[in-house]
């Protein structure tokens, strides 16, 4: 099926529930209202899918081969940095299709056993599911201090998916934590979003600011975003465990449209039709063209001043979108140009 690891766990998330509720109460979820909805369905799987007894947790590596070195892209401030997970096709569809095939395989195997009424539902970052907590319990890895799942064999460059089922399957032992005294992810975060070990204030996180936040990016964070136009991988790039990161075996996650090595000016010139065409089938598509331009405008504001940078910004100084126009004007001010 293309999965790199699979584990099975029960539905007891009592310890994770307390941590999650405390995170919500601190307002660390920001404008992601969906994180606070659904009551206890997120922490009690049987409330989300009645009859759930077990969760089958899987991971699939996504690190693309032959992609331009991420740290080099970050150093070239006229280039666009896009989080490694979004360089290929949208993982939601890929994982859901594979999980569905796995369920069909399980169903065919059950035909040989006196067990009827196999029920299941598949998920991948698409419903109120505590993916990392379930994967940790299922033995796929441990929650790192940056809150992502870490594996001794694969670092953190992978997607997670789940199958909720009523099958009384044997469960796997949970993973042990191997972060030790390391604080590299905390230290490197450009916006200091990892406010304490295992605790991220999403309102400060560049991934949140460039993807989840739909309104104006707070000015205090704009210079810290650098050339990151979609997501941020700094905490993963610095993590020692990612020296064991695996290159994906899935063609779907290979780089598309040269997004690993492309200039900010090139992307800023895309009209909406071009954006929709190029980003079709990509996770980036969901933020839309307006938010895409907003992010790139900030990155252009952070780039080294040169005529082609300022000319690109001037071309959208009167953009019909008030959101884009605001960020373009801020960017021009960084180059000492008033409009």
TrEMBL record:
<feature type="binding site">
    <location>
        <position position="149"/>
    </location>
    <ligand>
        <name>cob(II)alamin</name>
    </ligand>
</feature>
<dbReference type="InterPro" id="IPR004453">
    <property type="entry name" value="QueG"/>
</dbReference>
<feature type="binding site">
    <location>
        <position position="239"/>
    </location>
    <ligand>
        <name>[4Fe-4S] cluster 1</name>
    </ligand>
</feature>
<dbReference type="GO" id="GO:0005737">
    <property type="term" value="C:cytoplasm"/>
</dbReference>
<dbReference type="Pfam" id="PF13484">
    <property type="entry name" value="Fer4_16"/>
</dbReference>
<dbReference type="GO" id="GO:0052693">
    <property type="term" value="F:epoxyqueuosine reductase activity"/>
</dbReference>
<feature type="active site" description="Proton donor">
    <location>
        <position position="125"/>
    </location>
</feature>
<keyword id="KW-0170">Cobalt</keyword>
<feature type="binding site">
    <location>
        <position position="185"/>
    </location>
    <ligand>
        <name>[4Fe-4S] cluster 1</name>
    </ligand>
</feature>
<comment type="function">
    <text>Catalyzes the conversion of epoxyqueuosine (oQ) to queuosine (Q), which is a hypermodified base found in the wobble positions of tRNA(Asp), tRNA(Asn), tRNA(His) and tRNA(Tyr).</text>
</comment>
<keyword id="KW-0671">Queuosine biosynthesis</keyword>
<dbReference type="Pfam" id="PF08331">
    <property type="entry name" value="QueG_DUF1730"/>
</dbReference>
<feature type="binding site">
    <location>
        <position position="125"/>
    </location>
    <ligand>
        <name>cob(II)alamin</name>
    </ligand>
</feature>
<dbReference type="InterPro" id="IPR017896">
    <property type="entry name" value="4Fe4S_Fe-S-bd"/>
</dbReference>
<feature type="binding site">
    <location>
        <position position="179"/>
    </location>
    <ligand>
        <name>[4Fe-4S] cluster 1</name>
    </ligand>
</feature>
<keyword id="KW-0819">tRNA processing</keyword>
<feature type="binding site">
    <location>
        <position position="189"/>
    </location>
    <ligand>
        <name>[4Fe-4S] cluster 2</name>
    </ligand>
</feature>
<dbReference type="InterPro" id="IPR013542">
    <property type="entry name" value="QueG_DUF1730"/>
</dbReference>
<feature type="binding site">
    <location>
        <position position="42"/>
    </location>
    <ligand>
        <name>cob(II)alamin</name>
    </ligand>
</feature>
<keyword id="KW-0004">4Fe-4S</keyword>
<keyword id="KW-0411">Iron-sulfur</keyword>
<feature type="binding site">
    <location>
        <position position="182"/>
    </location>
    <ligand>
        <name>[4Fe-4S] cluster 1</name>
    </ligand>
</feature>
<comment type="pathway">
    <text>tRNA modification; tRNA-queuosine biosynthesis.</text>
</comment>
<dbReference type="InterPro" id="IPR017900">
    <property type="entry name" value="4Fe4S_Fe_S_CS"/>
</dbReference>
<keyword id="KW-0408">Iron</keyword>
<comment type="subunit">
    <text>Monomer.</text>
</comment>
<protein>
    <recommendedName>
        <fullName>Epoxyqueuosine reductase</fullName>
        <ecNumber>1.17.99.6</ecNumber>
    </recommendedName>
</protein>
<dbReference type="GO" id="GO:0046872">
    <property type="term" value="F:metal ion binding"/>
</dbReference>
<keyword id="KW-0479">Metal-binding</keyword>
<comment type="similarity">
    <text>Belongs to the QueG family.</text>
</comment>
<feature type="binding site">
    <location>
        <position position="232"/>
    </location>
    <ligand>
        <name>[4Fe-4S] cluster 2</name>
    </ligand>
</feature>
<dbReference type="GO" id="GO:0008616">
    <property type="term" value="P:tRNA queuosine(34) biosynthetic process"/>
</dbReference>
<feature type="binding site">
    <location>
        <position position="214"/>
    </location>
    <ligand>
        <name>tRNA</name>
    </ligand>
</feature>
<keyword id="KW-0846">Cobalamin</keyword>
<feature type="binding site">
    <location>
        <position position="235"/>
    </location>
    <ligand>
        <name>[4Fe-4S] cluster 2</name>
    </ligand>
</feature>
<feature type="binding site">
    <location>
        <position position="160"/>
    </location>
    <ligand>
        <name>cob(II)alamin</name>
    </ligand>
</feature>
<feature type="domain" description="4Fe-4S ferredoxin-type">
    <location>
        <begin position="167"/>
        <end position="199"/>
    </location>
</feature>
<keyword id="KW-0963">Cytoplasm</keyword>
<keyword id="KW-0560">Oxidoreductase</keyword>
<feature type="binding site">
    <location>
        <position position="207"/>
    </location>
    <ligand>
        <name>cob(II)alamin</name>
    </ligand>
</feature>
<dbReference type="GO" id="GO:0031419">
    <property type="term" value="F:cobalamin binding"/>
</dbReference>
<feature type="binding site">
    <location>
        <begin position="232"/>
        <end position="233"/>
    </location>
    <ligand>
        <name>cob(II)alamin</name>
    </ligand>
</feature>
